[in-house]
Amino acid sequence: MRLVCFLSVCITLMLSGCSFKADRPAPVESLNGPSTPSISKGSITGSRYVVKKGDTLYSIAWGSNKDFVDIAKSNRLPKPYTIYPGQVLSLSSKKYVTNSQSVKKTANSTPFPSVKYAKSNEKQSVSVNSSSAASQNEGSKKQLDPNSKPAYSVTSNQQDVNRVVHKPAELPKKVSRWSWPVKGQVIGTFSAKEQGNKGIKIAGNRGDAIKAAASGRVVYAGSALRGYGNLVIIKHSDDYLSAYAHADKILVKEKQAVNVGQTVATMGSTGTNRVMLHFEIRYHGKSVNPVKFLPKQ
């Protein structure tokens, strides 16, 4: 009788243990805890992407080597481009016509629509000349948790798409001046090959100042993009973005305005095996050779 009771207790404990393990969530690999996604360089290659907590439109665009404006247009995302965990974004390339003007097709270029800020006390609207984009957006909404919060919260009170917004500080249409982000020897040059270096690598000492190569606004400051370490991305205009990777410390915050020559981070070796700065410039989401924009040393 005692043996039967003992076996019953053992079986009960074993079943409880199995049930407990089955209910536990699967471990999530992350650089900054389980809530922060980790995106590899060019790792987003599909036509769709499911937003994770901590994502921004700019980090997704950077990881997929696409223009953030194109992604916003494809998914009818109004400024300030708030996205939500579980939201499905289309990353497929689409052609647009804006201001009743045709966008010419070229062999090596991507059409880039103009996006204007709404004036103060003016309702903001976003139009997309594609019924498929609208239907896909509806499909994305159906998959969202009605109680979900923005992947990256940009406002405390999120309103509907047709909301009254105030005009933020205008970014220049053109970058008037570029400057070297650090002083040091270039130890890695740009390559246009698919698996090539999409920027330049500059040697330096830990703690050296990393400065903004041009005036603009910080649109990303974090370490979720695997392979970049601590990364700062600055938007200079609707055309140009620049990135500063492997920083030791980030000294700016997202949405912060910066001037050319302003210190945004310090040099380090996060995400790599030596102290250096990996510096990129992107035009309409495509990597370009930074040396062609920077003054001669």
Could you describe the 3D structure shown?
With 297 residues, the chain is an alpha+beta fold. The protein has two domains: 30-97 and 114-168, Roll (Membrane-bound Lytic Murein Transglycosylase D, Chain A), CATH 3.10.350; 186-292, Distorted Sandwich (Glucose Permease (Domain IIA)), CATH 2.70.70. Helices cover 16% and strands 22% of the residues. The protein is built from four helices and 16 strands. It has helices at 2-23, 57-64, 68-74, 131-142, and strands at 39-40, 48-50, 88-90, 122-123, 164-165, 186-188, 200-203, 209-211, 216-222, 225-226, 230-235, 240-250, 257-258, 263-267, 276-283, 286-288. The strands form four sheets. Strands 6, 7, 8, 9, 11, 12, 13, 14, 15 and 16 form a ten-stranded antiparallel β-sheet that branches. It has a two-stranded parallel ribbon with strand order 1-10. A hairpin with a 4-residue loop joins strand 11 (230-235) and strand 12. The longest helix has 22 residues, at 2-23. It is globular. The termini are far apart. The relative contact order is 0.15.
Task: Write the topology of this structure.
Blueprint: H1 2-23, E1 39-40, E2 48-50, H2 57-64, H3 68-74, E3 88-90, E4 122-123, H4 131-142, E5 164-165, E6 186-188, E7 200-203, E8 209-211, E9 216-222, E10 225-226, E11 230-235, E12 240-250, E13 257-258, E14 263-267, E15 276-283, E16 286-288
Parallel strand pairs: 1-10
Antiparallel strand pairs: 2-3, 4-5, 6-7, 7-15, 8-14, 9-11, 9-13, 11-12, 12-14, 12-15, 15-16
